[in-house]
Amino acid sequence: MMVMTLIASTSTFARTSPNLVITPADVKDMRGAIKQDGQFTKAFAARKSSVDKQIAQVITVPLPKDGGGGYTHERHKKNYKLMYDAGVVYQLTQDEKYARYVRDMLLEYAKLYPTLPLHPQRKMGKQNPGKLFWQSLNEAVWLVYTSQAYDLILSSLSSTEKTEIENGLFRPVVKFLSVDSPETFNKVHNHGTWTTAAVGMTGYVLGEQEWVEQALYGLDKSGTGGFLRQLDELFSPQGYYNEGPYYQRYALMPFVTFAKAIHSNQPERKIFEYRDGIVLKAIDTTIQLSYNMLFFPINDAIKSKGIDTIELVNGVTIAYGLTQDSSLLDIARQQDQVILTGDGLKVANALDKNLDTPYKFKSVAFGDGNDGKQGALVVMRQNVGGEQAVLFKPAAQGLGHGHFDKLTWQFYDKGAEIVSDYGAARFLNVEAKFGGRYLPENNTWAKQTVAHNTVVVDEKTHFNANVKKGNANHPELLFFAKNDDVIISSARIDSTYEGVSLKRTMALINLPMQNSKDAEQSLVVDIFDVNSDEEHQYDLPVHYKGHLISTNFELATNLTNLPVLGKDNGYQHLWLKAQAQPNAGLSQITWLNDNGRFYTSSSIMDGDASIILTQIGANDPLFNLRNENAFINRKTKASNHTFVSVLEPHGEYNPSKEFTVSAVSKVQQLTHKKINNIDLVEIILSGNKHYLLAFNATDKIKNNQLNTFSFNGSKYQFDGRFKLFNIKE
Questions:
Q1: I want to staple 253 with a disulfide (CB 3.0 to 4.6 A). Which of 93, 218, 311, 601 is the partner?
Q2: Percent of residues, the chain, with pLDDT higher than 70
Q3: In contact, 26 and 340? CB cutoff 8 Å
Q4: Has 401 been annotated as catalytic?
């Protein structure tokens, strides 16, 4: 098994303090640093001031009552953060009042915890309950922090105090999270990661090697569960986490924190070298899966989460401490947070000396699954009038937090989301909104296929919204390729609907300039093939951010009442705002984003397909959903169909300076042909600019395969997967 590649150790280790994320050597360095000017000293002063204000208040350890976002839930969260911070301040100042405060709060918890039943707000049958919190996940997070707080003040305690705290609190919590909750402890899931990290770190503090071994290898120490199995199964070889970037940053905290504790206590395990350095790869991949400091919001994601989240701040800090990679300092500067650890001191000192170099965001196909072959999450980036990114998602399901959106995509430009993903339907920790939990509409809308930018067949969701079936099937990445002008990828899946094959090819193009006076121009090309032996209705939505400006076809708009688009599978939440049946040829829809740029989607229509303009909000009695817009390209009574479109950023609208430029699309003609195995997309722009994108999206091609074809009487050829031809007539 893979876990056996790590050097095992069953030796006991000395019970030193502190020795988890912060070590005695770190403490010595940090005590010296706070006597000098710099970012570290400023961070320490701010943290100390905050702690001083909080410890002046009466210690409050309330009887658990509320769910997420409620008073008792939030109080226990504040308590573990306060205990940790006070422990750090104690180590740096050596002022006993901080240690006494942590001691007194731990003693209160030691009195309370043995009396607690399961939490009163637990959700029966849907999650593993905690005692202090409504779910055991929060209990594990509490223990990750609290075990570190105890480690930081351990040297100040008497034997009697240690016994009372350990027997009344830490041993019961560890038992509850491990022996009493084997289904979570042994689970390959972010809940299991937090739990094993919490138990393992507490094992180091209390000198319980058995807990560490169980945390690493599972309760029976067979390697079928535990922290190492999670490292093996939850990450692809490139460091992509199965549930997506939002949950990757959440799971990152226990992974990097426990890894650091292992490194501090048992360096012979070489944890940061495990699986070809998978922990460090995961940190870098988490950064890569962001745009304008925010994570790509796939699956159950809160869209406001970004690289300044504390989990990634800790990850970047630890990674820099190990690698001294100066590009990580670029991210640390953007995060603008200094962690009070030895690694945090290294980051602060390096930033004070301006040692940071630019972090490079790349175009990458991040393989999904533990083998990296279960589809991929594809990121394409260009810099054309501002940073642009296409996120293409031929990825695996992502477990219970995954959405049913195979082959969906998003587009970002000039700092903004243009073609959007809804993310999660949830008001995190806002108790007034369904207790801060996922809203019912997360299942009825956000997870449904029509909520995403991919094909819906017969108004039914991929895999019939069956998570088990979704987890058992994944798209096949046919190829990912790039050169200076084009980044292109293609993927296929045949299992979302019985008897229907879906294949999508997407390209982000930086059009080569034909003369020095030309402005840079980018395009997103989208070719979606749907094939079946039977007739179906095919819907392809585009969820966009901005205000509709114009269409080149006539709209039949519902002016006085709004019908609902459908009855279920997410359609029940869409108002039918308008519809149209464009003539055969080029249809165009233009909108204006808040970033001041116009966007036109140009599509090839056959005269039979229709366009539907929708808005979210129907069947939403409590106004839980955001009222966002989309248009749907609908083809009915078809067995095979190819959706062809080009997204074009253009122009500028500046209301402050009162000018508008290039508000009209430059795309004048768009055609698509298939010649043998080669797709040809012809794009003609105003100014007699003529381009031809040719690609071969068959399953396999030979290395340096020569592709030849004739187009408009001329012969063309290209090696490999694709080529963009600049046609000069």
A1: 311
A2: 97
A3: no
A4: yes
